[in-house]
């Protein structure tokens, strides 16, 4: 007898065009090797090859099977919504690590209070990764720093503009940003995010407006790491003024008046579900509450 779970896995593989693509988009946790092994069991039980591996292409038998099972597996989501009264209670969220730690717990707690049975999945990333995941329908929302334009088919909402700051060690000789920016030649090691990140580009834009050049010495993967390297004495960092976020005790912020601000926002694709609308609303409310004291800085 054919295993129904094997048929379900084959449905996702055929729908998304391969095992690796299916592993990213199946709505429950399963690894690529497990999918491959179970598809092989299905092929052995049927005595046929269902698709070519490299490149992926359904065989005649695979296409026949997919056309037969697609109406059933493709309709499960709709019948699930109907049985729940049309209300989807689960969201797939991606956010930068610092957002996951400092802000998402508050927002998710609010969602639990508003939506009985609310559940979510969570992964990390940055805008370019959010865009890819949204286009592949792997997540419902991405929260992080935004660039100027969103790809076609995706939407975004700015929640707040954040001010860039320099991060220095408290034992540093610098107490104001102008002490560094006023140097004839800035020879202090600069610690930043990668050059493609919105914050790094805005900072370099601010330098350019002043006719300054300051080439990064270290490009790191997150704002927490920038602060950590500053704490260890490896240079001066570029960060953001984030209310409520605890820096390492030996790191202090130096404001950068006149430098371009960075947009923090939320991204999504397609039509939002009712719970998605609530999530977007709560994100705006929480941002205004947390950042209102600094939004004019």
Structural summary, described in words:
The chain is of the alpha/beta class and 297 residues long. The chain has 3 domains: 4-74, Winged helix-like DNA-binding domain superfamily/Winged helix DNA-binding domain (Arc Repressor Mutant, subunit A, Orthogonal Bundle); 88-161 and 264-291, Periplasmic binding protein-like II (D-Maltodextrin-Binding Protein, domain 2), CATH 3.40.190.10; 164-260, Periplasmic binding protein-like II (D-Maltodextrin-Binding Protein, domain 2, 3-Layer(aba) Sandwich), CATH 3.40.190. Helices cover 43% and strands 21% of the residues. The protein contains 12 helices and 12 strands. It has a 5-stranded mixed β-sheet with strand order 4-3-5-12-6, with helices on both faces. Strands 9-8-10-7-11 form a 5-stranded mixed β-sheet. Helix 1 (4-16) crosses helix 2. The longest helix has 18 residues, at 274-291.
What's this model, at a glance?
This protein is an alpha/beta fold. It has twelve helices and twelve strands. A five-stranded mixed beta sheet has the order 4-3-5-12-6, with helices on both faces.
Question: What labels describe this entry?
Answer:
12 helices; 21% strand; 297 residues; five-stranded mixed sheet; D-Maltodextrin-Binding Protein, domain 2; alpha/beta; Arc Repressor Mutant, subunit A; disordered C terminus
């Amino acid at each position: 007898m054919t295993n129904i779970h094997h048929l379900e896995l084959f449905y996702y593989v055929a729908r998304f065009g391969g095992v690796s693509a299916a592993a990213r988009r199946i709505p429950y946790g399963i690894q690529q090797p497990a999918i491959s092994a179970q598809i092989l069991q299905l092929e052995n039980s049927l005595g046929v090859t269902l698709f070519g591996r490299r490149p992926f292409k359904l065989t005649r038998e695979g296409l026949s099977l997919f056309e037969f099972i697609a109406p059933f597996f493709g309709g499960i989501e709709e019948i699930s919504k109907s049985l729940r009264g049309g209300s989807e209670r689960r969201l797939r969220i991606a956010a930068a690590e610092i957002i996951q730690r400092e802000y998402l717990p508050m927002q998710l707690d609010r969602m639990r209070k508003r939506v009985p049975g609310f559940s979510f999945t969570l992964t990390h990333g940055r805008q370019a990764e959010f865009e890819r995941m949204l286009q592949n329908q792997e997540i419902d929302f991405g929260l992080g720093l935004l660039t100027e334009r969103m790809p076609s088919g995706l939407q975004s909402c700015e929640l707040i503009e954040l001010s860039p700051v320099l991060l220095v060690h408290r034992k540093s000789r610098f107490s104001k940003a102008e002490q560094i920016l006023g140097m004839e030649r800035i020879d202090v090691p600069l610690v930043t995010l990668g050059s493609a990140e919105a914050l790094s580009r805005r900072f370099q834009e601010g330098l350019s407006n002043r006719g300054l050049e300051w080439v990064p010495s270290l490009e790191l993967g997150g704002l927490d790491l920038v602060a950590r390297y500053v704490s260890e004495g490896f240079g001066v960092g570029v960060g953001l003024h984030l209310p409520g976020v605890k820096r390492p005790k030996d790191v202090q912020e130096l404001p950068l008046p006149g430098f371009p601000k960075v947009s923090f926002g939320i991204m999504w694709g397609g039509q939002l579900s009712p719970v998605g609308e609530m999530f977007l609303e709560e994100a705006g409310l929480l941002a205004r509450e947390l950042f209102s004291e600094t939004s004019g800085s």
